[in-house]
């Protein structure tokens, strides 16, 4: 964590840790016989430099050489913002505007000129040119350079799989505020309550509480969204894994599937619960118990040295033993950190070896058409032995019942 001159540590990744990430990536370039890598993904740029920005149609790119030299391509409007966040890095290469701002030059031609002026060598990138967003159109980097651009995505994202102690501390803190937001929301849900208004009110109150408690230690890393968020969907709509909100009030007998997360230092948490309004039916209790058993199997299966596929297989074996395989709609979980979903995935076709320091969601779901969906999700840290649940919200049914009156 970054330590200011006075006062407690700010909740963000230090410049020294960002420098260490770049050094490890530079070593991976050397090991792969690559002279440099162009990084276009906004989250990857932030991971390597600490520069968090609003990604628009204006290309941003980081060039890192195998010796650790840094060049950043930026629109001129971001230059001061970059200098404020990254005073330890060299001045950027800037362009006036996208698609050219009257210069007659597309911004990526500036990047290509810089790369051509560098010493010869194999070039990699996380994407062959800037990613299409907000109306952006531009040439492929390989076309501009008239040479192959090698796929360097895994060189960066494999580094991101193992979280550092500082990253884990930020995610642990994010879990605390996701749990708090969920508690405020659950306490506010009553028959007739609207999904949207209750969710947003609880998120806003949890954010106020977070800002009061953390004070100047909290360092926002985005222009949009709140640092503590929660929501729910209700009724038969929950039978869709990614069901949308209803503009209707909660009714007795409704099943609720919730979501909550915190964001601290740019790092996210994940928490989901299945709840019931009023006295649950035998069918609800049966499917809830099956879902809980599947999640228990995932928590027990997530151990260092196993593969993601083996974790998924253990969960599916439990569900199959209950005769409910036909209700599965997705894999058991995914890694996350700076993004809500990251590589690797707890999936039968992902054979990544689980290692200490990885963080996953464990969220096997069962979806009963016409009735409801059943899914808990927890943030789980892989430890040297076993796994540690970082989101600590209750999982048992009695704790997740909403009074019907």
From TrEMBL:
Peptidase M24 domain: residues covered: 170-384
Question: Which stretches make up the Creatinase N-terminal domain?
Answer: 21-162
InterPro entries, A to Z: Creatin/AminoP/Spt16_N, Creatinase/aminopeptidase-like, Creatinase_N, Pept_M24, Peptidase_M24B
Q: Which domain of life is it from?
A: Bacteria
Q: Protein name, please?
A: Dipeptidase
Species assigned in the record: Deinococcus arenae
Short name of any one Pfam family annotated for the protein: Creatinase_N
């Amino acid at each position: 964590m970054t330590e200011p001159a006075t006062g407690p540590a700010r909740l963000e990744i230090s410049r020294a840790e960002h420098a260490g990430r770049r050094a490890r990536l530079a070593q991976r370039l050397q090991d792969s016989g690559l002279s440099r890598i162009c990084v276009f993904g906004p989250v990857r740029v932030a991971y390597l430099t600490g520069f968090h920005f609003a990604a628009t149609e204006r290309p941003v790119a980081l060039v890192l050489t195998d010796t650790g030299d840094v060049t950043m391509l930026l629109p001129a409007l971001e230059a001061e913002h970059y200098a404020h966040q990254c005073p330890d890095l060299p001045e950027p290469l800037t362009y006036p505007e996208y698609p050219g701002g009257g210069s007659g030059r597309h911004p990526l031609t500036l990047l290509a000129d810089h790369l051509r002026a560098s010493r010869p060598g194999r070039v990699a990138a996380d994407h062959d040119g800037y990613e299409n967003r907000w109306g952006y159109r531009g040439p492929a980097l390989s076309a501009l350079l008239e040479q192959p651009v090698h796929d360097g995505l895994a060189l960066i994202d494999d580094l991101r799989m193992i979280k550092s102690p500082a990253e884990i501390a930020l995610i642990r803190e994010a879990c605390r505020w996701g749990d708090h937001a969920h508690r405020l929301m659950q306490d506010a849900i009553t028959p007739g309550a609207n999904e949207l208004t209750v969710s947003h009110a609880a998120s806003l109150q949890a954010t106020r509480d977070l800002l009061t408690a953390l004070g100047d230690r909290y360092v926002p890393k985005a222009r949009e969204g709140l640092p503590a968020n929660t929501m729910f969907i209700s009724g038969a709509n929950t039978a869709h894994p990614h069901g949308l909100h209803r503009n209707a009030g909660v009714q007795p007998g409704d099943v609720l599937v919730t979501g909550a997360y915190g964001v601290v230092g740019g790092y996210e948490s994940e928490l989901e619960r299945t709840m019931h309004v009023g006295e649950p039916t035998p069918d609800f209790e049966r499917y809830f118990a099956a879902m809980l058993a599947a999640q228990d199997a995932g928590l027990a299966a997530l151990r260092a040295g196993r593969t993601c596929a083996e974790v998924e297989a253990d969960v599916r074996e439990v569900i199959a033993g209950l005769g409910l395989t036909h209700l599965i709609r997705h894999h058991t979980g995914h890694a996350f950190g700076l993004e809500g979903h990251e590589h690797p995935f707890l999936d039968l076709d992902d054979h990544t070896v689980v290692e200490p320091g990885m963080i996953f969601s464990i969220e096997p779901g069962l979806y009963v058409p016409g009735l409801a969906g059943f899914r808990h999700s927890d943030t789980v840290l892989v430890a040297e032995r076993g796994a540690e649940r970082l989101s600590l919200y209750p999982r048992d049914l009695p704790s997740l019942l909403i009074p019907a009156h």
